[in-house]
Amino acid sequence: MINIPRGTQDILPEETKKWRYIETKLDELMEFYNYQEIRTPIFESTELFARGVGGSTDVVQKEMYTFIDKGDRSMTLRPEGTAAVVRSYIENKMQGLPNQPVKLYYNGPMFRYERKQKGRYRQFTQFGVEAIGAENPAMDAEVLAMVMHIYESFGLKHLKLVINSIGDINSRKEYNEALVKHFEPVIDTFCSDCQSRLHTNPMRILDCKIDRDKEAVKTAPRITEYLNDTSKNYFDEVKQHLDDLDIPYVEDPNLVRGLDYYTHTAFELMIDNPEYDGAITTLCGGGRYNGLLELLDGPSQTGIGFALSIERLLMALEEEGIELDVDKDFDLFIVTMGEQADRYAVKLLNDLRKQGVRADKDYLSRKVKGQMKQADRLNAKYTIVIGDQELENNKINVKNMQSGESEEIELSEIVNYFKK
Question: Start and end of every Aminoacyl-transfer RNA synthetases class-II family profile domain (predicted)?
Answer without folding.
Answer: 1-320
